[in-house]
UniProtKB/TrEMBL annotation:
It comes from Halolamina pelagica. GO terms for molecular function: alanine-glyoxylate transaminase activity; L-serine-pyruvate transaminase activity. Belongs to the class-V pyridoxal-phosphate-dependent aminotransferase family. Residues 1-28 are annotated as: Disordered. It comes from the Archaea. This is Alanine-glyoxylate transaminase / serine-glyoxylate transaminase / serine-pyruvate transaminase. Keywords: Aminotransferase, Pyridoxal phosphate, Pyruvate, Transferase.
Length: 395
């Protein structure tokens, strides 16, 4: 047998996280994770579970009884939503206008569903007329859409129009709110969304591990009355109902420290006030956008679809996007990301999320990106960009 590995003390770099997630974590959340562990059925933890559910309802803007943090990353919450609501033989309508609509399709197919698509170009939202036409052409049981598409920087407008079309055809609506919850306006009940899932590591500024999910009564009734069990035992909501519902019966060992973390992250949301938080993201991201545009850069999404929490910026002709990303990481300890799927190599994705959405960080992004572009021979006026950013932040 080999000798014990000689592994040194953990010492990760101190980055400024301005990519598509994770975002910087608030010190209070980190402190919450260092508090003593208790059992996942301890009376104190059960009380904490109730608090987390109430805070999630506040943040989702819902009264849904069935609102929980799923044990896992945002993709686990996504799979819990789709894998429980979509039954074998169901038809799910999914969008084609971004990377995560494609992931919806994959999960629906694995759940035994038949997938049909409503088309829109990458970089544009869904048109309600196209959604209505897709419903007229297909017998749809479940409609999924991405509220804030992380791969394109597009915010879906007219959500009530989409949900109304679906409900007129007796279909349930599943919304991907991973990049919107806690960062841009999201009103689950008012917009008649049946199911919404999210991730904690973006605008909530919480380490991944416990991911928000909410279902209304109609959606949960479908889950509890399935003819066949959900294909995932771990993510079977009819079983998780026993743990997160009134019974508090054992199902699995919850990620206790991650639940501590999301509780503190959600407390920060409530203390700031959810509508003030939405306004902060728009104000700070607006300053970032102003600086980038003053530098001569172009946003991928037009103004009416711009997503403040995820800014997709077109890479100028002749610029190597990867070299810029690497330079920012090496020279500034600053993380941004490249494009996904159809936009790989064409955009940078710059997050402005949660604790990371602050004047210091957006000012750093503008000046550092200007430096990186100048080193590649791009004619940029960094001074004008910094001034534009500062001017917006002063308003």
């Amino acid at each position: 047998m080999s000798d014990a590995p000689d592994v040194g003390e953990l010492s990760p770099p101190n980055r400024t996280l301005m990519g598509p997630g994770p975002s910087d974590v608030h010190p209070r959340v980190l402190r919450a994770m260092s508090t003593p562990l208790v059992g996942h059925l301890d009376p104190s933890f059960v009380e904490l579970m109730d608090e987390v559910q109430e805070l999630l309802r506040y943040t989702f803007r819902t009264d849904n009884e069935w609102t929980i943090p799923v044990s896992g990353t945002g993709s686990a919450a996504m799979e819990a939503a789709i894998g429980n609501v979509v039954e074998p033989g169901d038809t799910m309508l999914v969008p084609t206008n971004g990377y995560f609509g494609g992931r919806m399709a994959e999960m629906a197919e694995r759940a035994g569903g038949d997938v049909v698509e409503v088309d829109a170009p990458w970089g544009e939202p869904l048109d309600p007329d196209d959604v209505a036409a897709a419903f007229d052409a297909h017998d749809v049981d479940v409609f999924g859409f991405v509220h804030a598409e992380t791969s394109t920087g597009v915010l879906q407008p007219e959500v009530p129009a989409l949900t109304s079309i679906a409900h007129d055809h007796d279909a349930l609506v599943i919304a991907d709110t991973v990049t919107s919850i806690g960062g841009v306006e999201l009103r689950v009940d008012e917009w008649d969304v049946d199911v919404a899932y999210a991730g904690p590591q973006k605008c909530l500024s919480c380490p991944p591990g416990a991911s928000p999910l909410t279902l209304n009564d109609e959606a949960m009734e479908k889950v509890l009355n399935r003819e066949a069990d959900a294909r995932s035992w771990y993510l079977d909501l009819s079983l998780l109902e026993g743990y997160w519902g009134e019974e508090r019966a054992y199902h699995h060992t919850a990620p206790i420290t991650n639940v501590y973390a999301i509780r503190e992250a959600l407390r920060l949301v409530a203390e700031e006030d959810i509508e003030e938080r939405w306004a902060r993201h728009r104000r700070v991201a607006g300053a970032l956008k102003a600086g980038l545009e003053a530098m001569g850069l172009e946003m991928n999404a037009p103004e009416e679809y711009w997503l403040p929490s995820l800014n997709a910026v077109r890479v100028p002709d002749g610029v190597d996007d990867g070299e810029v990303i690497d330079y920012l990481l090496d020279a500034y300890d600053l993380e941004i990301a490249s494009g996904l799927g159809d936009l790989e190599g064409d955009i940078w994705r710059i997050g402005c999320m949660g604790y990371s959405a602050n004047p210091k960080n957006v000012s750093l992004v503008v000046s550092a990106l200007g430096d990186a572009l100048a080193r590649q021979g791009v004619d940029v006026d960094v001074g004008a960009a910094v001034e534009a950013t500062a001017r917006e932040l002063e308003q």
